[in-house]
Amino acid sequence: MTTSELAWFKSSYSGTGGDNCVEVAKRHEAVLVRDSKDPQRHALAVSPRAWSAFTALAADSRV
């Protein structure tokens, strides 16, 4: 499966002016993260476990 065949989701925290946009796509073995302004660049791939840890930390209001 290529990155163009994946279902990409834009972050709800992305700016409305077209800047600072992050998109995420889930695969069985990895979560892919890319800059929506440059979708042809390689996406960052992290394990689902690492992604869960990151989002939990990001959601923590104490950070």
What does this structure look like?
- This protein is α+β, with helices and mostly antiparallel strands.
- It has one domain.
- The chain has one helix and four strands.
- The chain has one helix at 48-59; strands spanning 9-10, 22-26, 31-35, 44-46.
- A four-stranded antiparallel sheet has the order 1-2-3-4.
- The N and C termini lie far apart (36 Å).
- The mean pLDDT is 84.
CA distance, first residue to last residue:
36 Å
Taking Cα atoms only, what radius of gyration do you get, to the nearest Å? 12 Å
Helix/strand order: EEEEH
Low-confidence stretches: none
Please report the total strand number as a whole number: 4
| Count of domains | 1
Morphology: flat
Integer average pLDDT: 84
Percent strand equals 15-25%
The secondary structure category is alpha+beta
User: Roughly what percent helix?
Assistant: 10-25%
Number of helical stretches of at least 4 residues? 1
Q: What strand line-up does the widest sheet have?
A: 1-2-3-4
Biggest beta-sheet profile: 4 strands, antiparallel
